[in-house]
Every structure is written in C-alpha cells, then in structure tokens.
Amino acid sequence: MSESGSEVRKAARKAPGRQQDPEGTRQNIIEVASQEFALNGLSGARIDEIAAKTRSSKRMIYYYFGDKDGLYLSALESAYAQVREGEAELDIAGLTPIEGLKRLVEFTFVHHHQHEDFIRMVMIENIHHGQYLERSSVIGDLNVTAIAQIRDLYERGLAEGLFRPGLDPLEIHWQISALCFFNVSNRATFSRLFARDFGAADMQERLKRNTVEMVLRYVVKAEALTE
C-alpha cells in the first residue's frame, strides 16, 4: 500500500457520507468483498472491482483492511459471526432437548441455503487448508460458543434420558454441518447428474425434513422418538 494513513483520511474527508458512517462503509466493503471472494476465490477477486461496487475507494479499503488478505480474513470472520449470531437467537435453552436439536438443525439448513456465499467461502478456505482461519483471533471464539451450545443441549438430553450416551458434541456439530453444507455445495452437480432440481422449494423442504430426521435418529434414543 503506497498511500499513507493521513492521505487516506484526507480522501475520506472529501467523500460525502463516509466520514459520518465509517462502520457502515466498512460493512459495505465486507459485504461486496464477500460476494467477490465467493464468486472468484481469493486469487481471482480484484480490489479494483470491489471498490467499484462499494461506496468507497481502493485507498479506503487499504486503510480499513491493510491488504487483500486482510479484507478476505475480515469477510471470513463476518460470515462465521453471522451464522453464530443466528444460532444465539434461537433460544434453544427454553426448548425441550429434542425440540432444541430440531430447531438447531432446521436453522442451520435454512441459513446455509440462504447464504450460499458463506458456503463458497468455507470451500475456498478449505482449498487454502484453513491457513487464514489460523490467523483469526475471532473465529475460534465464535465456534467455541457453537459447540458449547450443542454440549449444553446434549447434556440436558442425557439427563432426561432422551439422548444416546457416548456422543461427542463436536461430532454432532460435524454431522449437522455436513448434511446442511452438502445441500449447497453439491446442489448444482447433483441436479445436473440426476436431472432433478434439488434447489426447488418442495425438494428443499423435503431435504430439510430428512436432515432433521437423520440427526434426531443419530442423537435421540429410539424409544424417545416414538413417545
């Protein structure tokens, strides 16, 4: 980055609206960048293109994020924060263990379906072997809370004699994520290969019900499911 911080701040002062809402500007950059990274990958995304689609400039992007890698990491953190915020709003603690698990699976399925950019960014990060996740001081804490939520739910289910003993909350999270992630990541190929529209509303509703049932049958005791 060749421009100094003072030069960037001067540019910001000249731009109407940016000075009054720096957080709004920053969030706008992240939203546009997320779309570009999801579409083109880290190497294919261009700062020029991102700047052209925001109410900002290249200099402002560098000022907020340092470089393209910094912007990518911020977009990744924002994507994970969004899904964890949604999980926190479910009020699972106020539901029975079985209903809480069902609500969590339904939320994850619908969230991933509605946020395809999140799935694509996770796929891109896996291509990079998770190296950018390692640099984040935020994402680790976010995912600790996700596992803690499942652990609390699972322990309540065990205490009430509803859930199978010996399961790992992290592995429960893995199974839920795997089913809901595949629904987005492989939808296009499955639709082409088998000549069926897996993105159709009726198919998505059916797949969501099936996903909930599979997770419940994995976690919940058979006798508790029939009660």
UniProtKB/TrEMBL annotation:
Residues 23-83 form the HTH tetR-type domain. Gene3D superfamilies: Tetracycline Repressor, domain 2. Keywords: DNA-binding. Residues 1-25 are annotated as: Disordered. The keyword RNA-binding does not apply. Residues 46-65 bind DNA. Transmembrane segments: none annotated. Residues 1-10 have a biased composition (Basic and acidic residues). This is TetR family transcriptional regulator.
